[in-house]
Amino acid sequence: MAIAGRAKKVTTHTLQEMKQAGEKITMLTSYDYSLARLVDGAGIDVILVGDSASNVMAGNETTVPITLDQMIYHAQCVVNGVDRALVVVDMPFGSYQGDSKTALDSAIRIMKESGGHAVKLEGGAEVAESIERIVSAGIPVMGHLGLTPQSIYKFGTYGVRAKDDAEAEKLLEDAKTIEAAGCFSIVFEKIPADLATSVSEALTVPTIGIGAGADCDGQVLVLHDMLGITKDFSPRFLRRYADLGDTIDSAVKQYISDVRARDFPTDEESY
């Protein structure tokens, strides 16, 4: 159900209203002006400038290599293409884990240099102090629990997290801790659906799921995955809404054929 009189621009307050009203929040990643403009124009609520740019834009195996400068660049591009959506920017590995001052300095750079509207960071109680410090500076923070890709070398696997009781209990406590620290929303990645349901119900802030079942307050996917641009990543939670990889392949092959056959350009396409 829509919220009467809601402002056109999506804010952190909008997301809180949506949770209270039972209206699902939609979120997708974007990394450049052109696709961000299309995604925003289609009506998405939140655009995440994800550190997944390390994978889909740079071809890295993990999200670890991407730098703060690179994230700021991608965020600048996205912000230039957005009129309505809330733009959340991932804080990359190494930009906040050391101490809360480093975290604050990184968040300030993202906000000042990119024009983004909020930042996102991974972790629970261990980053609570950094969240508090960033929020105290007036910068909204989205949390991220469950599978945290920046810690992939610690986990050693991209498997489902919090399947055992101890880890599930820790996730609940971490969620409450970072909510208390000031997070306006929390992403749950690859955790059991029933756990995501119970934790979402225990929190007052909106939750966003990716591989966390249908009962989170919203959902997020990587744009290139759901559009079928990437082909070598097919987790259980991914639904492909298009096969643009095949469309692009066909178009490029047709272009090559037309040029070689002297069918392009025609007289009508020349000056």
Short description:
The chain is an alpha/beta fold.
Structural class: alpha/beta
**Helix fraction?**
40-55%
- Give the total of beta strands: 8
Strand proportion, as a percent range, falls in 5-15%
**Which descriptor suits the 3D outline?**
globular
Average pLDDT confidence is 95
Give the C-level CATH assignment of the largest domain: Alpha Beta
Number of self-contained structural domains: 2
Rg calc: 20 Å
Could you state the order of secondary-structure elements as H and E?
HEHEHHEHEHEHHEHEEHH
- The separation of the N and C termini measures 53 Å
Q: Mind telling me which CATH architecture of the largest domain this is?
A: Alpha-Beta Barrel
Q: CATH superfamily assignment of the largest domain?
A: Phosphoenolpyruvate-binding domains
Low-pLDDT residue spans: 1-7
Main sheet: strand order:
1-2-3-4-5-6-7-8
DSSP helical segment count: 11
- What is the fold-level CATH name, i.e. the topology of the largest domain? TIM Barrel
Structure commentary:
The protein is α/β, with parallel strands linked by helices. It is built from 11 helices and 8 strands. The chain has helices at 12-21, 33-41, 53-56, 68-80, 100-114, 128-136, 152-155, 165-181, 193-202, 223-226, 244-260; strands at 25-29, 46-49, 86-90, 118-120, 141-146, 185-189, 207-210, 218-221. Helix 4 runs parallel beside helix 5. It is globular and about 65 Å long.
